Amino acid sequence: MMFLLVLIMLTACAASPQDLSNKMFTFPQQTNRAHVRLNTTMQDFSAVTVCHRSFTDLKRDHGLFSLATPSNQNEFLIFWDDTHKEMEPHIRNGKAEYGGWDYKPNMWHSICTTWDSASGLVQLWFDGQPSIRKFITSGSNIRGSLIIILGQEQDSHGGGFDIKQSFVGMMTDVHMWDYVLSPCEIHNYVDELNFTPGNVLNWRALDFQIVDRVLIEDKFKTCH
């Protein structure tokens, strides 16, 4: 009975949103299992902005943010294609390729991705620098039973992980909005100034579950 009570308490704690300000997720090894699942009650999006910061030394393909629905495993995916040196936003199984970014290893990078279903345009902001806008898909929303995962790239709804696409490194300040963030707000995020936190995913009140070996540690900054 006591064990059951403790288990219920631990489950309740895990399900409560946490303020992860000045914290980071550390993914310390290559694996096809370890990941963080991010939870939201929102299930219908006509526009999206996702921002995050990551730090890695990987010299291969890897997923940075993976949102899947039962009908589309790449409903909203941010993926680094190391072969072509491109950051690739995938939306509703379409994608755009953005090359020319200085995606250096062993340093923090801030990446924001925006998409609007009315225009179908996607835009990437890499360390505060905007890309051109490209068309991916328009006319339909992202909707359904969402599964959002950090650390792995979903090839099926909530699974299908490939160890060669796993993320190894650190990640922090993950936010998601159900609208296109303004350039000023994106710059405020990149510069770690005051900005409106995500209304879908908010790093300061994050509902998440950790699966396997992912650590929560104090965020560090590189000294110059």
Automatic annotation (TrEMBL):
Its cofactor is Ca(2+). One of its GO terms (molecular function) is metal ion binding. The keyword Disulfide bond applies. Transmembrane segments: none annotated. Binds 2 calcium ions per subunit. One of its GO terms (cellular component) is extracellular region. It is found in: Secreted. Keywords: Calcium, Disulfide bond, Metal-binding, Secreted, Signal. Its main location: secreted. Residues 1-15 form the signal peptide. InterPro entries: ConA-like_dom_sf, Pentraxin_domain, PTX_dom. The keyword Zinc does not apply. Residues 21-222 form the Pentraxin (PTX) domain. PROSITE patterns: PTX_2. Belongs to the pentraxin family. Homopentamer. Pentaxin (or pentraxin) have a discoid arrangement of 5 non-covalently bound subunits. PANTHER family: C-REACTIVE PROTEIN, C-REACTIVE PROTEIN-RELATED. This is Pentraxin family member.
